[in-house]
Amino acid sequence: MHELALAQSVVRIVEEEAARRDVNAVTAVILEVGALSCVDPHALDFSFGAATRGTIAAGASLKIERTAGAARCFDCDREVEVTTRAAACPHCGSHKLMITGGDDLRVKAVEVN
Ligand SMILES: [Zn+2]
User: Fold this and answer.
1) Residues 79-105 pLDDT 10s
2) Beta-strand pair 105-112/79-82
3) Alpha carbon distance 88, 84 (integer Å)
């Protein structure tokens, strides 16, 4: 159900974008999903189909782009890329990392015809 709620908020963003650009049909939505976001892309894709029914985005395809997670290492004080929350710092091996990005989901682009 987590993914359905996400899909519904994506649809709201897409509807606002479509209204702002004065378009009648949305063909695709490109979504950036952070590697640390705990979102299941398959469940999200399925939920997107359900959430768009009867909206301007009905029939639109969902393109999911995974983005890397970002963290700051407390030990060597560098910004690092991580793929999981349990990852160690690639520079010094420390586990004292603070996640700074890649844990969210963002509508990157809306394709219209
Ligand atoms: Zn480090």
Assistant:
1) 999 999 999 999 999 999 999 999 999
2) unpaired
3) 9
- Give 68 Cα–ligand 1 centroid separation in angstroms: 17
Q: How far apart are CA 17 and CA 108, in angstroms?
A: 11
Q: Please tell me the CATH code under which domain 2-68+102-112 is placed.
A: 3.30.2320.50
The pair phi, psi for residue 59, each rounded to 5°, is 80, -5
105: CA distance to ligand 1 center in Å? 26
Centre of ligand 1 to C-alpha 82, Å, is 11
Question: DSSP letter at 39?
Answer: -
Summarize pLDDT for 48-77 with one digit per residue, the tens: 999 999 999 999 999 999 999 999 999 999
Per the CB < 8 A criterion, the answer to whether 55 and 20 are in contact is no
User: pTM for the full model?
Assistant: 0.83
pLDDT in tens, 29-46: 999 999 999 889 999 999
